[in-house]
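stage 2 :: seqdesign
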């Protein structure tokens, strides 16, 4: 009798070492660095001070003072829900013209709550292919079937929805795409959801505070009501410059989430200091001044970049990607910019699709024209210093 040769199972240490070697080989190893946030859209690192073009602090509010009690002490259904939370939920609901709001500790948790509480096995979730990772993971965790349509392709979304009419169907999209800066075709998505009897979920993490006269995001810009977008997710960690997130909708929806969303029920409630600070910032988020300043920084950046023949994508939001394709070129340009005193995100797979590594340059009301000029001069030089793309690349 011949005994089968069994290989001992891979140990965890071997698995982690192999994964690390692979990441390093692909130039995809990442690490957290220490950044001390300074006023004036700057950060301090061990090497020195940099102008920050990497954060989502679109309105330049992240460095303002904080207010309120520090911790919540318990989950919201136990005793972690206090006056600061209630006041913020009420103010957010009034701002966004929704019946009610439910706070969560992060946007990731909000998206988990929505998908897992509203969908189950035999249901269908249809998403834009470029939706944020949290929306993809949330759909997977819900147990529903997940279909992803090519970016912004309404006809494909319609086909995917129409193919599968059993169970409930959620149609899901980012409002502003986080790595591309372009806007979702929300009016078309709303028409499609209505025609198909599906529920539209918009995650407007990057639109709130940035778009719309009142900063009400992509729904305000497109003139869409709560009826057309019944589930709206927003974060407090971007334009608000604080942290935390929320879901806005009708009272029945919010009560259902409050009772069933495990990512909220089994987690310590948002810290009251964040709720109070976000409430304090809401006035600045709604006021036009910072948004106008942000818009003029975006226009200035795009105009000057075009003059310098820097190839931009057609984004009118503060998210301005410069797609360089491969990881090494992207890292080389990001490092050259850092040497010159500018911090930008070097975004690589799996955050973006293969062969679309990019610099994610983000603008803020806290930037100045002089600072943008400095960034663009350094960027043009760094691009000129790149070796030509080889044929085999
Ligand atoms: C579209 C989108 N949704 C959700 C999130 C997650 O939000 P949070 O950082 O509050 O977890 C992000 C970014 O972080 C995002 O870009």
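stage 2 :: out
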């Amino acid at each position: 009798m011949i005994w089968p040769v069994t290989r001992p199972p891979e140990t965890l240490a071997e698995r982690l070492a192999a994964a690390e070697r692979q990441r390093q080989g692909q130039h995809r190893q990442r690490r957290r660095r220490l950044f001390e946030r300074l006023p004036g859209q700057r950060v301090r690192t061990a090497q020195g001070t940099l102008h920050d073009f990497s954060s989502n602090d679109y309105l330049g509010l992240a460095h303002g003072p904080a207010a309120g009690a520090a911790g919540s002490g318990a989950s919201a259904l136990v005793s972690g829900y206090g006056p600061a939370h209630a006041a913020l939920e009420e103010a957010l609901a009034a701002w966004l013209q929704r019946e009610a709001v439910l706070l969560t500790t992060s946007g990731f948790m909000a998206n988990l709550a929505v998908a897992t509480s509203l969908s189950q096995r035999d249901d269908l979730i249809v998403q834009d292919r470029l939706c944020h990772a949290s929306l993809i993971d949330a759909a997977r965790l819900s147990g529903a079937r997940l279909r992803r349509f090519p970016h912004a392709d309404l006809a494909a979304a319609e086909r995917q929805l129409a193919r599968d009419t059993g169970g409930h169907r959620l149609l899901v999209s980012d409002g502003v795409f986080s790595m591309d800066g372009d806007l979702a075709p929300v009016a078309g998505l709303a028409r499609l959801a209505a025609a198909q009897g599906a529920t539209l979920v918009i995650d407007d993490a990057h639109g709130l505070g940035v778009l719309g006269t009142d900063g009400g995001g992509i729904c305000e810009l497109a003139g869409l009501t709560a009826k057309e977008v019944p589930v709206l997710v927003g974060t407090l960690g971007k334009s608000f410059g604080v942290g935390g997130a929320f879901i806005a909708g009708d009272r029945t929806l919010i009560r259902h989430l409050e009772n069933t969303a495990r990512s909220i029920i089994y987690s310590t409630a948002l810290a009251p200091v964040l709720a109070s600070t976000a409430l304090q910032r809401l006035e600045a988020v709604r006021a036009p001044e910072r948004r106008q300043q942000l818009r003029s920084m975006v226009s200035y950046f795009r105009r000057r970049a075009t003059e310098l023949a820097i190839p931009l994508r057609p984004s009118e939001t503060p998210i301005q990607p410069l797609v360089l394709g491969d990881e090494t070129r992207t890292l080389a340009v990001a490092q050259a910019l850092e040497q010159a005193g500018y911090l930008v995100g070097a975004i690589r797979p799996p955050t973006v699709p293969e062969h679309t590594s990019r610099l994610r340059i983000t603008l803020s009301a806290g930037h100045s024209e002089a600072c943008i000029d400095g960034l663009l001069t350094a960027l043009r030089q760094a691009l000129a210093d790149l070796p030509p793309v080889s044929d085999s690349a």
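stage 3 :: structure notes
- The mean pLDDT is 95.
- The radius of gyration is 22 Å.
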